[in-house]
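ARCHIVE CARD
CATEGORY: sequence design from structure
SOURCE FIELD: tokenized fold
FIELD CONTENT:
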């Protein structure tokens, strides 16, 4: 998810994480090693090819 920055997050363990970038990519899949920021780890998992699915 892309949001306009700068942003500041408070994580579940109480840690404050800040980004001063004008646009921030936020992880919504929880696979990122940089959570709460996206590191594109979600790209490693591929969905089944929809064209090969039967209706």
């Amino acid at each position: 998810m892309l949001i306009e920055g700068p942003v500041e997050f408070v994580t579940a363990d109480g840690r404050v994480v800040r980004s001063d970038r004008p646009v921030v990519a936020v992880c919504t899949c929880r696979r990122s090693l940089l959570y709460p920021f996206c590191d594109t780890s979600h790209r490693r998992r591929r969905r089944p090819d929809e064209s090969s699915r039967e209706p």
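CARD ANNOTATION: The chain has no helices and four strands. The longest strand covers residues 7-10.
SHELF: design records, drawer C
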